[in-house]
Design a protein that fits this description.
This protein is α+β, with helices and mostly antiparallel strands and 79 residues long. The protein has one domain (7-78). Helices cover 15% and strands 22% of the residues. A hairpin with a 2-residue loop joins β4 and β5 (50-51). The longest helix is centred in the last third of the chain and has 12 residues, at 67-78. The radius of gyration is 14 Å and the shape is globular.
Length: 79
């Protein structure tokens, strides 16, 4: 694993620590694979039942939401 200040961390999130996450995924063209949207921007750890927005990476309005609240917020924005 590269040091946390290494620039590679901005293009490859690497393995995630054990725990629950909400991941926003997009299909990789011409494959059966998926990758996270915006790399770190698409990763939201869940702690004590609520999402955590990674500082400087995610959307602040998705911070501290339960899974049900997150689902409602996403569905509201899809309309």
């Amino acid at each position: 694993m590269p040091d946390r200040s290494h620039r590679l961390n901005l293009s490859y999130p690497g393995p995630l620590a054990e725990g629950q996450y909400v991941l926003f995924l997009k299909k990789v063209r011409r494959s059966d694979l998926y990758s996270t949207v915006g790399l770190w921007q698409g990763i939201y750890p869940v702690y004590d039942g609520k999402t955590i927005t990674l500082e400087g990476q995610g959307f602040p309005e998705l911070n501290q939401l339960t899974i049900a609240e997150l689902r409602r917020k996403i569905n509201q924005n899809r309309r």
